[in-house]
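Contributing new records

If you add data, match the layout below exactly. Sequence lines come first and carry their own label; structure lines follow with theirs. Keep one chain per record. Anything else will be rejected by the validation script.
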Amino acid sequence: MTLHLWNGEVEAMGSKALKIGCVNITMHPDHSAELYKKLFTYVCSEKLRAKIHGKYHGVINTASYDNGSSAVSGSFYRFFDLPNNTSWVDLELNRPMDPDTDDVPHLPEEKKPEFRAIEYVFFVHSHRLFFNCQYITPASMERFLNNLFSTACISDRFNSVQANIEMSVEGLEKILGIAQKDRIKIFIQRPNPDDLTACDANILERFKNINVKNSTSEYKSDGSDITPDEAMKNEMNVALSNGYVTASGKDGEEKIEESTRNHPLVETVRYDSNRTTIFDLIFDVGINTVLKINARMKRKSHKSNEIQ
């Protein structure tokens, strides 16, 4: 089945639509394709759970590695984590239920309601996770993974593991398009070295030298429009995969606030479910998107070299 990518939307003959999100997963101080593979297989085998939001929790249910594609694929399970001490009401009797005298429902710990399966494909070399957005947003996936990776058993085996939403360049374009930029904030988590061009490697090197895992740069105008130089644009570009950028300003009399977090990278796919599977779609879109991210970094690096 041939898929055609047009401005972030994959078109194909079919009646169904699927939205696919992307999260960048980094690991420090050591990282490799083999370590990323071990990370997912370990989390899956241990059935580690973590909070998504509210009373919804999740677990990586399956993690199968394919040598040919160097990808781990499987499903996350999202479920409602109903505590045993939940208060109940009897609508027929129109009164609260007393756990000491009433037959209050109790679910076994291993049984969870409101189950949903979320398909994913994780490319271990580019350390990008692509997933079905039908039942989880990119922000919720980021939160879930960071909660999962912050558990002691993960820290003991893999040190620092961090998830960041992969964001669309549209967010940066909107920020740079603000007529009067009064404030710009750039937040960067320590990136993996394979995500950086030679022009950006000094960002990672500085992080290592001063022993920090993230940085925040804030810029306030002197009354004129902030005009980002190439170094500042490089930081913004790194933040697309490893943090975020926010800005505030004016367009005439209208006050404007923008954030790259409002523009996650989400690809929309139309497909025929009789001819292809969700996993095939996620894989194809993932390959295409990784190529686009790499091309964006190369274009930026080439432009920077021309200026220097």
